[in-house]
Structures are given as structure tokens and as C-alpha cells.
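Lab manual, section 2.4: Encoding a predicted structure.

Procedure: take the sequence of the chain (231 residues), apply the prediction step described in section 2.3, and record the output as C-alpha cells. A sample record is shown.
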Amino acid sequence: MTQQMTLNVTTRDGLRFDSFFATEENHDVIERVKSFAESEQTAQLFVWGEMHSGKSHLLQACCYHASERGQRVSYLPMKSLASYGTAATRGLDSVNLIVVDDVDLVLGNLDWEEALFDLINNSRTGNQRLLFSASQNPRHLDCKLADLASRLIWGESYSLHALSNDDKNNALRQRAAQRGLALNDRVIDYLNRHYPRDMGSMLTMLDVIDQESLRQHAKITIPFLKQVLDS
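Recorded output:
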């Protein structure tokens, strides 16, 4: 991670554009977020989609991509920050790109809504870029502050479609291959039948498989999976 990247909470290693499994229906949103990371013009972008559709992966990929180009980036995941107060939204004047993940988790809290309202206004005067994500269309978000609701729809918005079961299998194979791991059909079928199917859980599971296969110098077999995942 480069020095220009200032993060309030650490992003997950490996969540880059090249590790995001791109389906045809998500092509436009992926390309738009990538171009947003490369831009230096003041702008606002909103990505929305159901839980486990890959929003956090895409937003963190944007952070890395911008940081690798020397931009200063601040990543604000509301899932982690919601209970700690609004201080994370302040002191960002020198940041080029501000990324607010799961913004809908703090809507309805007046302190957070006022902080986000100020953040958006300040980003305009400070020539900054803002990227938001939420689980639903920004036009349908339930805000106490009408002025915040109107500001959340200032920029473009894109829907990120969740992966089908077949796409999830292919995504898991792709991520495994990037780590030098081979998952055959029997292994994939076993994982599907015995473990959670959302991509977040699958990637966490892959982390464990990767670490243990390296430690034990073991191939990925069903007995190996039973040993490392059920222990």
C-alpha cells in the first residue's frame, strides 16, 4: 500500500480490479469505477446493489487503483465506523478521493447525516471526488435530512448485479488460480454443499485454504478441506 493512501480502516489485501470477477452485465459499472479512480476532476459516483454483490471489493479496488497513481485516498467503511462517531469524516481536506462504503448503514442517524452533508459540500469546494455505495438505489434511501437525500443523487449511479451460482463458482476458481491453487469440480461441489455461498465468506474460506495448503504443502482435496475448515 502506497504512502499516499490514507485509510481510516485497512482495506483487504488482494481486492483489486484484476481480481474482481467481471460478468457482462457488470462491465459498465466496473469500467466506470475504474475511470473514476483515474480521474482528477471533481465528481460524485454512487454504486448500489444487494448484499454480497461485490460493492466493497469494487470500492477497495478503486482505492488501490487511485493510490497507485499517486492520489491520496480515504476509505470509510460504515460497517466498521458507524459506532465510533463521525470524526472519520473530518480532516480530509488534502484527500483526492473519498470512498464511503455502505453509507445506508448510518442513514437515520442525524449526527451521521449532518456529517455526510458537510462532507459532500466540502468535497465540492475542495475539488475532491466522492464514491458511495449502498444496498439500494440512492433515490430510494431513507434520509432524515432532505438536503442530504438530494445531495446523494448529485452524481451518476450504477447498479452492481449479484453473481449467479455458476458465476460464484467461476469467481472462486479465478481467485484460487491467482493464488496458484487448483480447485476441481468435486472440491467446488463439496464447498457449495457444506459452506456459505456469499462471496465474502468464500474469499475468507479461500484465505484459510491457501494458508494451510502452503503450511502443509498439501493439495486441495476433500479430506484436506474437512481437516482445515471443520477443525
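Check your result against the sample. The domain at 165-230 is CATH 1.10.8.60 (Helicase, Ruva Protein; domain 3).
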